[in-house]
Input
Amino acid sequence: MIIDVHTHVFTSNKPFSAQFLKEASGARTTPIDMITRYDEYRATATDCAATICFGGKARLAGLWVDDQDVADYIKQDPDHLIGFLSLDPTQPNWQAEMEYGHQELGLQGIKLMPMYAGFYPQDEQLDALWTYAQKHNLPVLLHTGTTFASQSQLETTLPRHIDVVARRFPEVRIIMAHLGHPFEGECIAVIRKHPHVYADVSALHYRPWQLFHSLMLVHEYGVWQKLLFGTDFPFTNVDASVAGLRSLAEVKIDRFSLPLEKIEELIQRNALPLLGLQQPGQAKL
Ligand SMILES: [Zn+2]
Output
């Protein structure tokens, strides 16, 4: 059973500025179709029991997906899909959007993009966000690490900022996306010390040299249990991500190699109880 904790909802090109689209085409070495079609996702999601979906809001970088789009998208397959709302706290009304997305649209977590939107996650002006997440048990997934968007602010994305948040709001379930690449060492330092802070491995398998080294660090620090499987669809998909992760077990450099059983545990990890979420389609107990 696989849980994909990181996918996007881009049902048209409307959410993107022209610049964002142009720069996104350089995210991988080959151009990417940014439109998300759920049937295509599902066709390449073998054994995937649940998928977390969100849009993304970041005025600075030229991205804005209304949470309503996410609520509509998950209606396509309510037995597998879990929706998160998105917030850009640099914009007015973000608190009202948070309450609306949670209470009216029924979205079950929060996605933040600090570097795309231009804010620090530990800024005390965001205390209302973290307090709300803690009170209502909403997991928070943040983009951490580099990006293609030229207007994004690298200084706001460092994993060390989440250490500050987690010290102040220790009960919030937090996922740092992309293992903080290329700041994986710093990301590992944070997930190691905070019981409820995790990292996802989405969109990393297509840089196998980097991911091999990152997972060796994970192995040496003994934090495999803090890694969650994710894809970052539409940038890649479940089957390709699983194959990419498994292939790393075949790498041997001198006396260093990754244990296949740890990679399999990561692929099969049930993230839902760790994040305080239910399997979609099941009534709340
Ligand atoms: Zn993403």
